[in-house]
TrEMBL record:
Species for this entry: Bifidobacterium castoris
Protein's recorded name: MFS transporter
Predominant cellular place of this UniProt entry's protein: membrane
Family matches, as InterPro entries: MFS_dom, MFS_trans_sf
PANTHER family: MAJOR FACILITATOR SUPERFAMILY (MFS) PROFILE DOMAIN-CONTAINING PROTEIN, PTHR23528
Basic and acidic residues compositional bias, start-end: 20-39
Membrane disposition: Multi-pass membrane protein
Length: 533
């Protein structure tokens, strides 16, 4: 016989353990104090469901049936009551019950705090993009050209490939470490500040050397510092920005990137016109901005709460950290987003990284004043891209928040970029490049405004946002490798096929063709995401 007092939560007298009832975990021990507080505030009453309405495949239902079949008085009703009690489950219904104006860390930010988050993301995006693009796409290519014009394409591809590999590893490592960091300053803040300092000092040191090997080493160190800062920085979007306004914040963040990258081309071209002194000043600009931007953003944002007493899934150890490097499993949407962004940005960097050489050797091929004219055309393209991408980025985020869609706008933005990339093929002239800047810039602005919100939406586990967003941000580094290597390969094949000592203009025409194909594949992959509209 069974003691009725043991039903509904304890093993029966005959030792039988009812699946889903008696072996249910003790929530007082399984949940941290913070989890309990959040559940108490966020859960809503759930209607009781009758056993007849549940699937016969449900293990809890089977447990009830077995208990009922035992013909013990009261055990069936007691078990049924235990099964249908509404228990908050963080792994399933919990996220659906969360208030959309409450961030993943359980805090409801005020309007002022949301504004501060938006300002921090936007201003820092602009501040980082300006020197990074100016140095990587204008100044660094010119430095390699000055050292050895014959190997400039190879050296640019080499430094970007090695640097991207370093950045790839750094993104995963520091994203994971930031998830595990426990300090009174929070888990993201220390990495953002230190990463900015390392980036700035590494970039500043390049100004004092002409050694290609040392330049490659310092640039890789800068890549490491930049991703040490970037991985936890982007994770803040998941940690502290509520779902309801994430599209808008992502839009302003994307606008900052678009504006900064555009201004980076303009600023880089302006430094280039001042010769050696301008190049030195460009490196010093990178030193100053990156050294200060990490401090700036953590001051502008609401202070991150201490993570010293945040619950850990397991004790901090080398084994636990290495286990956290494991990519998420059974998450196809996550990988569609990862590969889609990688290819889209790969097509972008195929053109952008080599825009100085494209203007010199494709648009102004054979012109004795090609370098000066190339700088002028890059500056004009920058202004055009600035206007269209700013408009697109500022408007696209709020619109997608209103319509509740992320996937389709991202795919359409990729297609729009492909249309823009076709313009220099149809019009081999400055006008073709200006049309590219306008149309592709519009698509890129929309893309940047929405893609980060899409990335957050496909995260399989918000508690591992730093790690998983670090993996998604591999697209930023892998795309640099793909873009520079593919352009370098296309140019090399064209030179070999045409037996040309220099770079033939036709080689860059094929660069545009390949970039268009890569971007369209990216759009198709984004459309395969199933759980995000």
């Amino acid at each position: 016989m069974v003691d009725e007092q043991n039903a509904g939560g304890k093993p029966t007298a005959n030792g039988y353990i009812r699946p889903g009832v008696d072996d249910r975990p003790d929530l007082d021990k399984a949940l941290s104090a913070e989890d309990k507080e959040n559940i108490a505030r966020l859960t809503a009453p759930m209607p009781k469901r009758r056993a007849a309405e549940r699937s016969v495949d449900d293990e809890q239902t089977q447990g009830v049936k077995l208990a009922t079949d035992s013909q013990v008085h009261g055990s069936g009703m007691a078990a049924l009551a235990a099964v249908d009690t509404a228990v908050p489950d963080e792994a399933s219904a919990f996220m659906d019950m969360r208030d959309p104006m409450v961030s993943a860390d359980g805090h409801r930010p005020t309007k002022a705090e949301i504004v501060r988050l938006g300002i921090g993301f936007t201003v820092s995006a602009v501040a980082c993009a300006i020197p990074w693009v100016a140095l990587s796409t204008v100044i660094l290519p010119r430095v390699f050209e000055q050292i050895d014009a014959g190997s400039k394409v190879f050296m640019l591809g080499l430094v970007n490939s090695i640097g991207a590999f370093v950045a790839l590893v750094a993104n995963i490592v520091f994203g994971t470490l930031s998830d595990q960091t426990r300090s009174r300053f929070g888990k993201r803040t220390p990495w953002i500040v230190v990463g900015g300092l390392i980036t700035g000092l590494s970039i500043g040191a390049i100004a004092f050397t002409r050694s290609e090997a040392l330049i490659v080493t310092l640039w890789c160190l800068a890549q490491m510092g930049y991703n040490m800062m970037l991985a936890p920085y982007v994770a803040v979007m998941s940690d502290r920005v509520p779902d309801k306004v994430r599209g808008t914040i992502s839009g302003f963040y994307g606008a900052g990137i678009a504006v900064g990258q555009t201004l980076g081309s303009v600023v880089g071209a302006a430094f280039l016109t001042h010769g050696a002194s301008g190049i030195f000043q460009a490196w010093m600009m990178g030193l100053a901005i990156f050294s200060l931007v990490g401090v700036f953003v953590v001051v502008v944002w609401p202070r991150e709460k201490s993570s010293r007493f945040e619950a850990d899934g397991e004790a901090m150890s080398a084994k636990a950290i290495l286990r956290n490097f494991r990519p998420p499993r059974h998450a196809p949407d996550f990988y569609y987003a990862l590969v889609g962004r990688t290819l889209m940005m790969g097509g972008y960097w195929m053109i952008t990284t080599y825009q100085l050489y494209i203007a010199q050797d494709y648009i102004y091929a054979g012109d004795p004043h090609a370098i000066d004219k190339a700088a002028a055309i890059i500056a004009t393209m920058g202004v055009i891209t600035l206007v269209v991408s700013l408009i697109a980025a500022v408007t696209a985020g709020p619109i997608t928040d209103r319509i509740g869609r992320r996937k389709l706008p991202v795919a359409l933005a990729s297609c729009l970029f492909a249309v823009g990339a076709a313009m220099p093929l149809l019009f081999r002239s400055p006008m073709g490049m200006y049309l590219f800047a306008a149309i592709a810039g519009l698509g890129y602005g929309v893309y940047n405004a929405i893609d980060q919100a899409l990335n957050v939406a496909v995260l399989p586990n918000p508690k591992e946002a730093g790690k998983d967003l670090g993996i998604l941000n591999l697209a930023n580094t892998l795309s640099t490798v793909i873009g520079t290597m593919m352009t370098s390969i296309v140019v090399s094949i064209a030179k070999s096929a045409m037996h040309a000592p220099g770079t033939p203009a036709a080689a860059y025409a094929w660069v545009f063709v390949v970039a268009i194909a890569v971007v369209l594949i990216a759009a198709a992959l984004i459309m395969r995401i199933r759980n995000v509209k």
